[in-house]
Amino acid sequence: MCNSAHNMVLGYNITQKIMRNNTKLKTLLLKYTVSFDMDDNGLFTLLLIDKNTNNTHAFEGESYGKVLAKAYSYLLRVLKEDKR
Predict the structure, then answer these.
(1) Into how many domains does the chain fold?
(2) Packing angle between helix 64-83 and helix 2-11, nearest 10 degrees?
(3) Which residues contact 9 (CB under 8 A, 6 or more apart)?
(4) What is the DSSP string of 10-76?
(5) What is the CA radius of gyration of the chain?
(6) What's the pLDDT tens digit per position in 30-72?
């Protein structure tokens, strides 16, 4: 799955400042199981579960777009580290 996610990321122009949330989510779903939740105060939580290792990582933010952006940035860091 990691290679598929890496190849999909490379297929898009990463230097663009705007990437559709749908594209970010599809890319994340290649490597992770994704869970969204929102508490009573409107705080969003996104949980990533790696499909190969079952490692988890959680992100919190004020909006769907913000937690998705954090998770996508995390994915880019992971892929960069895996490439080394």
Answers:
(1) 1
(2) 110
(3) 27, 75, 76, 79
(4) HHS-TT-S---HHHHHHHHHHHEEEEEEE-TT--EEEEEEETTT--EEEEEESSHHHHHHHHHHHHH
(5) 13
(6) 999 999 999 999 999 999 999 999 999 999 999 999 999 999 9
Q: Which domain holds residue 75?
A: 2-12+21-83
User: Which CATH number is 54's domain given?
Assistant: 3.30.160.20
Q: Are 52 and 2 in contact (CB under 8 A)?
A: yes
Tokens of 67: 């937690």
> How far from the centroid of its chain's Cα atoms is residue 11's Cα?
16
Query: Three-state DSSP class for 84?
Result: coil
Amino acid at 77: R
